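Example record used in the benchmark description.
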Amino acid sequence: MRGGLNLLLSVVLVALVGAYAGINADPNVPNWEFLPNMVRSIPADAFAPSPLLPGGRVLQPPPPGTIPRGLPPLPYTASPEDAARAGVELTNPYTAEDPAALARGGTIYANYCAVCHGAAGLGDGPVTLRGVPPPPSYAAENALKLTDGQMFHILTYGQKNMASYATQVSREDRWKVILHVRLLQQRAAAQAAAQAAPPLAPATPPSPPQ
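Model output (structure tokens):
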């Protein structure tokens, strides 16, 4: 029994020594390959050419009607009629009581919107000083009448001088930045009300005691 075990260990030792001797110490020279199919995969790479597939390439377009995960289609077009319909059918899934959503909306506004609309939403962003037509103020009557759904449609499809921001800003962030726009409108309304309020009359000093 012990003799057979010693023989087995001797064979293993010789095999290990032989394998070590066969290892090339030069990193520029490849060693023996074991299971080479693990190194050179039979399937083609995604961007490799292929004579068997349409278009002569491995990567194929998605089938018609494919929906990206997490992005259900929006049943609207860039038309005034669909903008009005979006204003009725779409509602903001976030509220101003959500501090994380409100903070995120402020960040998105500072990164993508303030350059044209200005920090306070008055249409006086820095690019308007370099020839870009200034956008209307968020405090203007037309802007105040816009519903959240209409704003979302504008952000998604663009309107007049404003291009679509659907590529730059995700759907969730578009809704969140609308929260910040509403906050700017509330601040503008409060400031206008304060300026329109009549000045307080000076307090009448008390009459001296008789």
